[in-house]
Specification:
single chain; 305 residues; Helicase, Ruva Protein, domain 3; 12 helices
Length: 305
């Protein structure tokens, strides 16, 4: 890749003609402008639909074989990756090791600016080594402007270790070319505040990560219909959600649903299988495991058996 001394030509750094008078707008005009510009995120996601689907399939295949998923970035991009990774355990009852976020500067950079650290490609390489990334893993490098040395160094190091790589940027390929297994470009145009990629670029990145992690978890059997049946019952809100799932899918009342949830060890997916098949918890666990945790497949196999 070229060494860019000036990044002014990048799409994310250009001046948005629609907001040249930003400091002269009324408050309502300002809000309306934001709304119009943010609409471009939907078009950007639609334009990247094939790449997003390819990324989901790539990650799913790796995780099914025992691999892990890593999001990696600096600044806003890194924070978004850490956020998406952190939300997987409570939503899908995954281990914290399955999906991980790596941000330049470490945990402290989540709450304090560390933008100077993004210029160190060697830190990206070190992060890959520290997490012992290997050929079953997938590394998603996130960089709105496409040129962040921390991310590019990490992706190169990950590829050298045999890991699959996914590149997410908000600049077109002709401006920045990077070698990756899946190349996702989310082209939302210049920001209304020139260069502030926490705005549209950040929004569209969050949308893309939502699609990736949810799509992968659906394919891993973490969902039945559109219910999060692998939800971790760790607080009152999630317990209530678990009970509502059981009530709605089984027609049990709250007390019976609670008893079923307790017998299953607070595992909604297992509770549903037990209710629908009459299996005890141990047999239910074994039956689910034989169908890779897919509740629908387990139920259909029981019905057909």
């Amino acid at each position: 890749m070229k060494n860019f001394e000036s990044r002014g030509h990048l799409l994310t750094e250009q001046v948005n003609p629609n907001s040249r008078d930003l400091d002269s707008l009324s408050t309502l005009e300002f809000v309306d402008l934001f709304n119009r510009e943010d609409a471009q995120t939907l078009a950007a996601i639609a334009a990247a639909r094939q790449e997003l689907a390819a990324a989901i399939d790539l990650i799913h295949g790796a995780l099914e074989k025992g691999g892990r998923l890593f999001y990696l970035g600096a600044g806003t991009s890194g924070r978004l990756g850490v956020l998406d990774a952190a939300e997987c355990p409570p939503t899908f009852c995954t281990s914290p090791e399955l999906v991980q976020g790596i941000i330049a500067g470490g945990a402290g950079a989540l709450v304090r600016s560390s933008e100077d650290l993004e210029d160190r490609a060697e830190d990206g390489e070190t992060a890959i080594a520290h997490h012992q990334i290997h050929d079953l893993d997938v590394v998603v490098g996130i960089t709105a402007g496409g040129t962040t040395p921390f991310v590019l160094g990490a992706l190169a190091a990950a590829r050298a270790r045999g890991a699959k790589t996914i590149y997410i940027a908000c600049v077109p390929a002709e401006q920045v070319q990077v070698e990756a297994d899946v190349d996702i470009r989310l082209l939302v145009g210049p920001e209304i505040l020139a260069g502030s990629t926490r705005l549209k670029a950040g929004t569209v990145t969050k949308m893309a990560l939502n699609i990736l992690s949810t799509g992968v978890m659906v394919k891993l059997g973490k969902v039945y219909g559109n219910r999060m049946v692998d939800v971790a019952v760790t607080n009152s809100k999630l317990r209530d959600r678990s009970l509502r799932i059981l009530e709605e899918l089984t027609d049990l009342d709250r007390a019976a649903a609670n008893e079923l949830l307790e017998r299953s060890g607070k595992r909604v997916k297992l509770a549903l299988l037990m209710h629908w098949t009459g299996l005890d918890p141990q047999a239910g666990e074994q039956w689910l495991a034989s169908h890779k945790g897919h509740l629908r497949a387990a139920i259909e196999a029981m019905d057909n058996g």
